[in-house]
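To close the section, here is one more complete example, presented without commentary so you can practise reading it yourself. The ligand is 3-methyl-2-oxobutanoic acid.
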Amino acid sequence: MSTQLDTSRRAFTTSQAIEMKAQGEKITVLTAYDFTTARLLDSAGIDIVLVGDSASNVFAGNETTLPMTLDEMIYHVRAVVKGVHAATGRAMIVADMPFMTYQLSSEDALKNAGRLMKETGCHAVKLEGGAAVAPAVKRITEVGIPVMGHLGLTPQSIYKFGSYKVRARDEHEAETLLHDAKLLEESGAFAIVLEKIPKALAEKVTRSVGVPTIGIGAGNACDGQVLVVNDMLGLNNAFKPRFVRRYANLEQVISDSVKQYVADVKRRDFPNESESY
Ligand code: KIV
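Output:
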């Protein structure tokens, strides 16, 4: 039996993410919830695929991320893991911990993070919040499970916030966020998502922590950027927040294609002879 490592499939690691921050090289992150998208993202060279609980909104059609269950997340992450491995296998796969799977106690959080890792093959978990979840981050990371933090507009707290407006504009909330970021780093988080906060605050947090910050609606000073893949591909043109850059208009492409298919079938053009046996 060969004992040689397969170096052609060098995987993206947490230490590589931290090294990239030190070198000033940006980290690229996109969400995926299914096999095909994950395969495409990995083969296009993305560093991290995040299986976000935004699946609750963009995949399942819920208004918020709160209904997502651990079993549903496991279903999505398994598909994404297979997609990444069907391509180059390089991207790191991070799985969101759904609402109420890490807030009850650190032991419960560890048990659920363990299920995500063991039952899917993902490489890290992500959870939302600062001081309240720091003990859970510490417990999960001390057994060897990498954790990505998430501060700012944390969608699982939407009913506390009352809106999807920019967070931490006032000094008190900004100071708390900075303190939370340091606490997450001390607790072992290898990276921190900063969502919808002022650019200047994101810059200050990025300078104040040794682990990479990954911004979404947080300006360009973060060490990396993340977007929901459906948003950047233009799959829902009704949703266009300022922080999304649209790289395609797939809503138009899909709509035009389906209209053409309907027309072709109705006028008996499809299937033709060469498309038949
Ligand atoms: O669930 C998600 O997609 C996320 C990103 C927007 C950061 O948490």
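Once you have examined the tokens, check your reading against these statements. The longest strand covers residues 147-152. Residues 249-277 form one domain.
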